[in-house]
């Protein structure tokens, strides 16, 4: 596969990227290709040296930290001395005075509405459209199709009326708790009407109203026989669908056929951890899909059950308000776009010195230019903002660099300063330890901070690789540093004035089939002060949103504001095992678990270009895996080899055993290539091994360099 480059200014641009930019991206923007590329060329060559210097600083700091741990090997880490050292080398910066963020023109989905946040790989147009349309999801379907409702027919394709009744019961009981009626229950109601602009519920020939009549805001159809009723609680909506003729209403005397809940309030369209985009061909797919979302014309054709179907963006939802006027609600999730971080380069564009373009700078221009199409029509952002989530930044200098990048992009594209809003992924140790100053550098742009605990764990292990053997992966969540990290993110966000102005987010629920367990566990994200949290699917969004009806997060944040701030000493504590005495079986079990999920993810990444997979673990429980989980597994095994907990020979033996299991788990996939048929020739297997055995030397423990290198090799071989 040979890339055809064309000369543009001082750049060599891949032909397919150039064609996309000139003919599609810039069309109807008022920006000519000549003007775009001239400005692009100037900015890229101005910013690239700064980008390179920041990456070099990461390497320099890591070497100093490695040397410090080697020098102090065998000694107890004294936190006071450790902090002094980190300050002297510039890892820790002095914390400045208190301040409040000043981000303007932020949509209410971020400032006023607390709710689930989806993350979707932008390369897959069908999944992307599903996520964008997941603003409104059937609660009935979500409950019926998951393990929340228990019944003997749980795995059957045949409709189970008893299971259906349990769904109805669940929803009615929920309404009784959070949208209660005055004097009766939602159970066994017989009719719903609108009388004198109020919702009236008929039960046993008596009329009842809502305890809080303001929770009824509108309807569809005639007042005495509405086809839908819209309710509002904690700034979130339920739509009750009334259709006695529908199959789902057969056992409902009120004729309610479904309850639609406002679910995925925001969605991150991901160019990063969940995609495998390694060259211009891949990047154009990403940019095209984002452009389609911003123009509102993205479509996906696919076959399902023998039928050819087309998916497109849902329109806004229309109702009659209780005052008889028109009422419109946003029909789609507010869309954010995650660009890549500062580390990676991409062969899509070659600079005048022959080097590849920093991918993050390219993403900034391309994703912002695509969003120009939304600014006039305001289909996505009603306030005229562009929302960029920026991952894998290390400390205030790098967040300040992100501000500089988007200032230059705005100047180049003729945008008002601070049109581009930035979400900070708090997922690297140096950012966590200096979070207040990171936010300060973006105080006019920041709309979001999120604890990406998976990447954060990977960075924790890599940063302190020389300190000693890490505790088991399963023990990480209960360790001192992670509790401090999660609390610190909320504490600083609230102190900086995020409540009612910006999102404080929490991480992903990684088991998409375990919804009952999610409903027990994920409410803790709200209790921790987060006004959004990641979910893996529209179904999960429609269930997790129930938590936001149960808890008013803005009231919760007021309570948290006055608590004792998380301790930096705890945040910097290192999760090394104190005199590890694990048995051989315990060690092998831990490694086997990591190796199996690692291989299950990498084989699809390398051979099929799949960036996010539901990978069955060693117990056949499906786990959502992406580069963040891969970073943890590879760094953990690398750490245990480095400290003699296991050996390279033993790990290689386990890798071969797990490869056979992964092959068996994927036997139904016609596109799957077995690793165990020829370990030496399997590029996927070699990549997985390199991620471990070369893990210590990877920059910040990131997996991208090796994944990209070998995926490119695979694409060349395939062509």
Give a description of the structure.
The protein is of the alpha/beta class. It has 3 domains: 79-133 and 265-571, Malate synthase, domain 3 (TIM Barrel, Alpha-Beta Barrel), CATH 3.20.20.360; 138-170 and 180-262, Beta Complex (Malate synthase G - maily-beta sub-domain); 584-718, Malate synthase, domain III (Malate Synthase G, Chain: A, Domain 4). Helix content is 43%, strand content 19%. It has an 8-stranded parallel barrel with strand order 3-12-17-20-21-22-23-24, surrounded by 6 helices. β9 and β10 form a beta hairpin. The longest helix is centred in the first third of the chain and has 39 residues, at 33-71. It starts with a strand and ends with a helix. 49% of the residues are buried.
Strand order, sheet with most strands: 3-12-17-20-21-22-23-24
Q: Count the strands?
A: 26
The radius of gyration over CA amounts to 26 Å
Number of helices: 24
| Tally of structural domains | 3
Mean pLDDT, rounded to whole units? 96
Low-confidence stretches: none
Helix/strand-derived category reads alpha/beta
Shape: globular
How much strand?
A: 15-25%
Helix content: 40-55%
Tell me the CATH architecture of the largest domain: Alpha-Beta Barrel
Q: Write down the CATH class of the largest domain.
A: Alpha Beta
The CATH topology of the largest domain is: TIM Barrel
């Amino acid at each position: 596969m040979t890339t055809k480059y064309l000369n543009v200014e001082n750049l060599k641009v891949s032909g397919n990227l150039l064609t996309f930019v000139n003919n599609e991206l810039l069309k109807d923007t008022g920006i000519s290709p000549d003007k775009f590329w001239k400005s692009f060329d100037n900015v890229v060559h101005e910013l690239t040296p700064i980008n390179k210097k920041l990456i070099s600083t990461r390497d320099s700091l890591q070497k100093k930290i490695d040397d410090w741990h080697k020098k102090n090997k065998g000694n107890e880490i004294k936190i006071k001395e450790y902090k002094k050292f980190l300050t002297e080398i510039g890892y820790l910066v002095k914390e400045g005075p208190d301040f409040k963020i000043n981000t303007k023109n932020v949509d209410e989905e971020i400032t006023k509405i607390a709710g689930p946040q989806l993350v979707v790989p932008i390369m897959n147009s069908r999944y992307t459209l599903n996520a964008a349309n997941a603003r409104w999801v059937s609660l009935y379907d979500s409950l019926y199709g998951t393990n929340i409702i228990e019944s003997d027919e749980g795995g059957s394709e045949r409709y189970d009326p008893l299971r259906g009744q349990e769904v109805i019961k669940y929803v009615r009981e929920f309404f009784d708790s959070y949208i209660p009626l005055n004097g009766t229950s939602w159970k066994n109601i017989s009719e719903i009407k609108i009388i004198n602009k109020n919702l009236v519920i008929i039960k046993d020939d008596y009329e009842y109203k809502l305890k809080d009549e303001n929770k009824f805001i509108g309807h569809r159809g005639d007042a005495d026989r509405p086809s839908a009723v819209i309710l509002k609680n904690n700034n979130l909506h339920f739509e009750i669908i009334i259709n006695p003729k529908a199959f789902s209403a057969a056992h409902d005397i009120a004729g309610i056929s479904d309850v639609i809940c406002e679910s995925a309030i925001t969605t991150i369209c991901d160019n990063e951890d969940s995609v495998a985009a390694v060259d211009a061909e891949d990047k154009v797919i990403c940019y095209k899909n984002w452009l389609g979302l911003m123009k509102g014309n993205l479509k996906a054709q696919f076959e399902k059950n023998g039928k050819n179907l087309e998916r497109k963006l849902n329109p806004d939802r229309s109702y009659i308000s209780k005052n008889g006027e028109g009422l419109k609600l946003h029909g789609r999730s507010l869309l954010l776009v995650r660009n890549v971080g500062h580390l990676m380069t991409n062969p899509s564009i070659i600079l005048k010195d022959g080097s590849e373009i920093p991918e993050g700078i390219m993403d900034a221009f391309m994703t912002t230019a695509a969003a120009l199409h939304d600014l006039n029509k305001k289909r996505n952002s009603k306030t005229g903002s562009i929302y960029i989530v920026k991952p894998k930044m290390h400390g205030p200098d790098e967040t300040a660099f992100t501000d500089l990048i988007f200032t230059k992009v705005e100047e180049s594209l003729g945008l008002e300063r601070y049109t581009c809003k930035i979400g900070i992924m708090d997922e690297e140790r140096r950012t966590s330890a200096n979070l207040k100053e990171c936010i300060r550098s973006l105080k006019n742009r920041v709309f979001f901070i999120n604890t990406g605990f998976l990447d954060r764990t990977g960075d924790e292990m890599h940063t302190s690789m020389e300190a000693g053997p890490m505790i088991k992966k399963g023990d990480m969540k209960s360790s001192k540093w992670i509790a401090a990290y999660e609390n610190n993110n909320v504490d600083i966000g609230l102190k900086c004035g995020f409540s009612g102005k910006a999102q404080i987010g929490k991480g992903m629920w990684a088991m998409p089939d375990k919804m009952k367990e999610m409903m027990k566990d994920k409410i803790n994200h709200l209790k921790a002060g987060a006004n959004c949290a990641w979910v893996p699917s529209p179904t999960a969004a429609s269930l997790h949103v129930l938590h936001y009806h149960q808890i008013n997060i803005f009231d919760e944040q007021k309570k948290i504001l006055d608590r004792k701030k998380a301790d930096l000493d705890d945040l910097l504590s290192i999760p090394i095992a104190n005199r590890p005495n694990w048995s051989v079986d315990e060690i092998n079990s831990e490694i086997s678990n990591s190796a199996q999920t690692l291989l299950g993810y990498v084989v699809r990444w390398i051979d099929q270009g799949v960036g996010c997979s539901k990978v069955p673990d060693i117990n056949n429980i499906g786990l959502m895996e992406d580069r963040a989980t891969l970073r943890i597994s590879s760094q953990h095994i690398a750490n245990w080899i480095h400290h003699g907990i296991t050996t390279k020979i033993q790990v290689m033996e386990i890798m071969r055993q797990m490869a056979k299991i992964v092959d068996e788990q994927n036997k139904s996939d016609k596109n799957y290539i077995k690793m165990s048929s020829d370990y030496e020739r399997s590029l996927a297997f070699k990549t997985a091994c390199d991620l471990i055995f070369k893990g210590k030397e990877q920059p910040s423990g990131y997996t991208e360099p090796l994944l990209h290198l070998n995926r490119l090799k695979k694409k060349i071989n395939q062509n």
